[in-house]
Specification:
alpha/beta, Rossmann fold, globular, 5-stranded parallel sheet
Length: about 375
């Protein structure tokens, strides 16, 4: 059976290495301290790392706590929305090139949300090879300094995230509630909001640029975000649902294996992909009208891929963002570096699966004009 567990002995690509000891104990308690024997070594590594994290988190709070609490995030953030594998990373990377206007959370910061102000400079300089050069699910470049999705930060601070259902698949149903925060007590939502705001304040302590934030789960949290940032701006990207489904399957067969703490039920993966898409877009379409006029832009992935400069220009126009003309040369220069990038290729879905995806995700096909063939 162990031969079926890919990357079983790996301790890399695991966001939980940034957790503090107290939160790690709480997470284990939530899951009745059950870790599959095949992953005991991961649990041991996380335990040792969490002890060091707790020490540095205490130091960081003592040094910066009052200053962070006093920060006010005054400029409206820009949130990138979209289902996993829909092109949110490409969009994030393109917009992040506007360094005069935007700041963003990087890979190191999101997995070390309570210690990065104290440890980032030292760790990233001394151990740059701790992080592989590309992501495991695709060929996109990865560095400690790369723009990264912020979901991991409040996850580690509150233990409220749909991603924990991947690491602990025995409690997937419990953690899936944190995708949209529907059917969750208000006090629990407020804990997440407080942690997310604290992370944003830390990023903004010495930087007054607008926050550029990207996390697929935010697609289902528009109302929760607007409660914190009433003037927030949103960019949503969508992609051929068949391609999204295939790419999500590939994600679980690559990156997913690095984060498991319990043996996955491989037979349940397809249903999980289908159900999370439905929950995400049920919430998205329910909340879409809450976004103030002029604060929303939407893109198709294939159009962004084909002509990134024109599509980013459209985003700036839709959201009335400043200084596109001065940003465009840097954007074009970055786009030139992407030539030669090779996307994953997949064989066609079988007819039965195509019918299921077309039926379950019918609204997405029809709303965005994708063929159900």
């Amino acid at each position: 059976m162990s031969k079926q567990l890919k990357h079983q002995w790996s301790i890399s690509h695991n966001y939980m290495t940034g957790i503090t000891f107290g939160q790690w104990c709480r997470l284990l308690s939530e899951n009745k301290f059950y870790i599959s024997p095949a992953y005991w070594h991961r649990a041991a590594f996380i335990t040792f790392a969490s002890m060091a994290n707790s020490v540095f988190a205490t130091i960081e709070k003592q040094r910066y706590g009052k200053k962070i609490d006093a920060v006010e995030v005054t400029k409206p953030p820009v949130f990138i929305l979209g289902h996993w594998r829909s092109g949110t990373t490409l969009l994030h990377d393109l917009l992040a090139q506007d360094v005069s206007q935007f700041q963003f959370a990087n890979t190191y910061q999101v997995v070390n949300p309570q210690t990065f102000m104290t440890t980032e400079n030292l760790i990233t300089r001394m151990f740059p090879r701790l992080i592989p050069p590309t992501r495991p699910m695709d060929n996109m470049a990865l560095k400690f300094s790369s723009p990264q999705e912020d979901e991991f930060a409040p996850l580690l601070m509150t233990l409220k995230s749909v991603y924990l259902g991947i690491s602990f698949p025995r409690r997937t149903e419990h953690y899936d509630k944190h995708l949209s925060f529907r059917d969750i007590e208000k006090a629990e939502i407020e804990k997440w909001q407080h942690a997310f705001m604290q992370f944003c304040k830390k990023l903004s302590l010495n930087d007054d640029r607008s926050l550029l934030l990207k996390s697929p789960p935010h697609t289902a949290r528009i109302r929760t975000i607007l409660e914190m940032f009433p003037d927030a701006r949103f960019v949503h990207i969508h992609r051929d649902p068949y391609r999204v489904f295939q790419s999500q399957r590939h994600f679980f067969d690559t990156a997913g294996w690095y984060t498991y703490m319990q043996r996955p039920d491989l037979e349940a993966i397809d249903e999980g992909i289908l159900a999370r898409h439905e929950r995400m877009y049920d919430a998205y379409f329910e909340d879409l009208d809450l976004i103030p006029e002029g604060n929303f832009s939407e893109l198709r992935f294939n159009e962004l891929e084909a002509n990134p400069v024109e599509q980013i220009k459209k985003v700036y126009s839709d959201l009335s963002l400043d200084n596109y003309e001065s940003f465009e040369p840097a954007l074009r220069q970055y786009v030139s570096t992407l030539k030669g990038y090779k996307k994953n290729t997949f064989s066609d879905l079988d007819d039965a699966t195509r019918k299921i995806v077309a039926h379950r995700w019918k609204r997405s096909f029809e709303t965005w004009g994708y063929d159900q063939y």
